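#onboarding

Welcome to the new folks! Below is a worked example of what a typical request in this channel looks like: someone posts a single protein sequence, and someone else replies with the predicted structure as tokens. Don't worry about understanding the tokens yet, we'll cover that in week two.

Example request:
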Amino acid sequence: MQPSFNPNLVTHSLLRRSRQGALATLMMGSGDPYCSLVNVATAPDGAPVILISRLAVHTKNVLTDSRVSLMLDERAPGDPLEGARIMLSGKAEQATAENREMLRRRYLNAHPSAADYADFADFSFFVIRPSGTHLVAGFGRIVDLKPEQFLTDISDAAELLAAEQGAVDHMNEDHREALGLYATRLLGADAAEWRCSGCDPDGLDLMAAGRTLRLQFPERVTSPGGLRKMLVRLADEARAKV
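Example response:
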């Protein structure tokens, strides 16, 4: 039996798994559309995070008009039009003193090599605050969604978010076997040096060999204790699979 189509979950997963996307901005002066390739991570709620240089045309455009669109696709083998993709609209907000360290941390977890230039004076982190998205997931599966349908509610998860990096480091240093089991037995991926790149109330992000997986939790977790119990539970489930 084919699994039921859940557009909210498809969009949510694609946001969390995407590491590159096509950023569309409006050209200064003319307002003509301009598109460029950018690396992408996510904020705790799933909003896209980008790191861009003021020397780049797209950054100059964003600083003049913050309206942007970001296309993310599944990079499916074969015909790329058969894979799911989203066209997300919103406004790009430059990092503030309050959220820059969090955005920097999550971006570098997803793109470690960016540490070589992330703190250069001309580079800035931006978070794209979505106003909506257009999902195309195959024939007859075209849906417009509001942000509350695909972003993660973090209003009750302050404790978890404060402990996130410690949990990520702990999993990568002491529980690589469990990460491998999540990837291979729960998500059907090939064996690799899987590592954790982030966690939030809805799930865990795993990365290896240029690929990102999303391990969705069966229930939300909002505290470090809840996360610990969930990860033990999922590891036990993975070990029980043959």
